[in-house]
Design brief:
The structure is a single chain. This protein is α/β, with parallel strands linked by helices and 449 residues long. Helix content is 38%, strand content 22%. The protein has 15 helices and 19 strands. The strands form four sheets. Strands 1-2-6-5-3-4-7 form a seven-stranded mixed β-sheet, with helices on both faces. The model has no long low-confidence stretch (mean pLDDT 95).
C-alpha cells in the first residue's frame, strides 16, 4: 500500500508508507503555504501519535509557525481550538477509522474547515517541488500547550440555545459508551457528566489499541449492543478514533443505523430552526424524508465533508452531515462532530419523552448496500458513460460519478480516489431491493465489457 496523498492530507501505514521524512516534508509544505502564523496541532490515541506530533511540531516551527498543542483531542475539538485561538490553520494527526498501524495528517484552514481542492493542491505542489520556507535559527516558531481545548468545546455545545442540560438530566438517562480506546474516551465522559447522564463504558482507555474494527458500522457493534441490554441502558454511543463520527444503539440493544444519526440531527434542528439541509449523494433518502416533514429542501453535494460544507454555505443550510454518522452543526463549526451530535440526540429524546427504539421506529426504513466493481482491466469512465446512456431517461445526477434515482431506491456509482475500483452504493426499502437495484445497474453497464 503506497502513501495516500489527497487534498485533505496524507495517510499511510506508519514506518513503511508514512515516515518521519514525508511527515516533515508535507507538514513543512503546509506551514510554508500558510506563510507562518499559528497552527493548532492535536492527535488521536494511536501508538505512533506522540512521535508524529513531535515531527509535525518541529516541522511547523522550522518554517516559522507558532504551534499550539492540544494533545489527545477529537478532530472537532481541534477545529474548535482553531476558531477560539484565531489560528491560521490546524493539523489533526489521525487516520480516523483506519486500523491502528495507520496514521495521517488532516489539514484545516483558518475557518477550521478541511482544505478545499484548490488549497490542498497548492500544498501538494509545494511538497512535491520542495518549495519549503525553512527559517534561520532566529526566526524559528515557538510552541505552547492549550490544556483547555476540550473544556471550551464542551462549553460551546452547552451554550447552544437548544441544548438544556437540566432537561437531559431530568430524563435520568443511562448511556453505554464505546469510544474504541480513541479520543472519545477522553472527550465523552466529561460531556456526558455535564449533561447529567449516567454512563457505563467499554473500550474507554485512550491507548489506541482498538478493541474491534474502529469503523462504527453495525457489524462492529456487537459488544456495545450486548452492554446496552445487560445494563438496561437508554442509548448506546459509539465513536470512531478521532471522534467525528457518531453511531447509536437503541435501548433494545439494536443498531440505530449510521445513516439515521444524521436523520435524527436533522429532525431535531429543523424543529428548532427550520431551514435547508445538506448531505452528500451517497447518503440515505431518509434525509429528504425528514426535511420534507418541515417543508424544507435537502441539498446534495459530492462525497466528502468539505463538499457538504461548501453546499451548506451556498444554500444557507441550518444543518448538514454525511450518512456515515457525521453531524455538521454550523452553529458550532463547519465540521463533523460526534459530541454535538450526541447532545442533540439526547436533547431530542428527553424533550419528546420517547425511547430511542420508538423514535427510530417512527422514521422511514431504508436499507443500503455497498459493493464495488474492479477496474484492474476495465475502464471506469467507460462504465460511467454506459450508465449515463442506459439510464438517460431517468436524468442521472453527474455531480460526483453517476447517481440514478428509481421509484423506490437509487444507485450511486463513483470511482474511488484511493483504489482501482468503482464504488456502487444502492438503497431500497428492503435489503433485497437494495441488492436487486444495484445488480440490475451493474449488469446493464458491464454486459459485453
Amino acid at each position: 500500500m503506497a502513501l495516500m496523498i489527497s487534498v485533505s492530507g496524507i495517510r499511510g501505514i506508519f514506518g513503511t508508507d508514512l515516515t518521519p521524512e514525508n511527515l516533515t516534508r508535507f507538514t513543512a509544505a503546509y506551514g510554508s503555504w500558510l506563510e507562518g502564523g499559528t497552527v493548532v496541532v492535536g492527535r488521536d490515541t494511536r501508538a505512533s501519535g506522540p512521535l508524529c506530533e513531535q515531527v509535525v511540531t518541529a516541522a511547523l516551527r522550522a518554517v516559522g509557525c507558532e504551534v499550539i498543542r492540544v494533545g489527545v483531542a477529537t478532530t472537532p475539538t481541534v477545529a474548535m481550538a482553531v476558531l477560539s485561538h484565531g489560528a491560521n490553520g490546524g493539523i489533526v494527526i489521525s487516520a480516523s477509522h483506519n486500523p491502528a498501524e495507520w496514521n495521517a495528517l488532516k489539514l484545516l484552514n483558518e475557518k477550521s474547515e478541511f482544505l478545499d481542492a484548490g488549497q490542498g493542491e497548492e500544498v501538494i505542489a509545494r511538497s512535491e517541488s520542495r518549495d519549503l520556507a525553512w527559517k534561520p535559527y532566529d526566526a524559528i516558531g515557538g510552541e505552547r500547550e492549550d490544556p483547555g481545548a476540550l473544556e471550551h468545546h464542551i462549553n460551546s455545545i452547552l451554550d447552544l440555545p437548544y441544548i438544556d442540560p437540566d432537561v437531559i438530566t431530568a430524563a435520568g438517562f443511562r448511556v453505554a459508551l464505546d469510544p474504541v480506546n480513541g479520543t472519545g474516551a477522553v472527550a465523552f465522559p466529561p460531556l456526558l457528566e455535564r449533561l447529567g447522564v449516567q454512563t457505563v463504558a467499554v473500550n474507554d482507555e485512550p491507548n489506541g489499541r482498538f478493541a474491534h474494527n474502529p469503523e462504527p458500522l453495525p457489524e462492529h457493534l456487537q459488544q456495545i449492543c450486548a452492554l446496552v441490554r445487560e445494563e438496561q441502558c437508554d442509548l448506546g454511543i459509539v465513536t470512531d478514533p478521532d471522534g467525528d463520527r457518531l453511531a447509536l444503539v437503541t435501548d433494545r440493544g439494536e443498531p440505530f443505523g449510521e445513516e439515521y444519526t444524521q436523520a435524527a440531527a436533522f429532525d431535531f434542528m429543523l424543529a428548532k430552526n427550520p431551514g435547508p439541509c445538506a448531505t452528500n449523494l451517497s447518503s440515505s433518502r431518509v434525509a429528504e424524508d425528514v426535511a420534507a416533514r418541515y417543508g424544507q429542501p435537502c441539498h446534495r453535494s459530492a462525497v466528502g465533508e468539505i463538499n457538504v460544507v461548501k453546499k451548506m454555505q451556498q444554500t444557507g443550510a441550518v444543518i448538514g452531515g454525511e450518512g456515515n454518522g457525521g453531524v455538521i452543526n454550523p452553529d458550532l463549526h463547519y465540521g463533523r462532530d460526534a459530541l454535538v451530535g450526541a447532545a442533540m440526540v439526547l436533547q431530542l429524546l428527553a424533550e419528546r419523552e420517547v425511547s430511542a427504539s420508538d423514535y427510530r421506529a417512527g422514521l422511514p426504513d431504508y436499507h443500503m448496500r455497498k459493493s464495488r466493481i474492479s477496474l484492474e482491466e476495465v475502464d471506469g469512465d467507460a462504465l460511467l458513460q454506459r450508465a449515463l446512456d442506459h439510464y438517460a431517461d431517468r436524468e442521472p445526477d453527474t455531480l460526483d460519478g453517476v447517481k440514478i434515482d428509481f421509484e423506490e431506491g437509487w444507485v450511486h456509482l463513483r470511482k474511488s480516489n484511493t483504489e482501482p475500483i468503482l464504488r456502487v452504493y444502492s438503497e431500497g426499502p428492503t435489503p433485497d431491493a437494495a441488492r436487486e437495484v444495484a445488480e440490475g445497474v451493474i449488469a446493464a453497464i458491464t454486459s459485453g465489457s
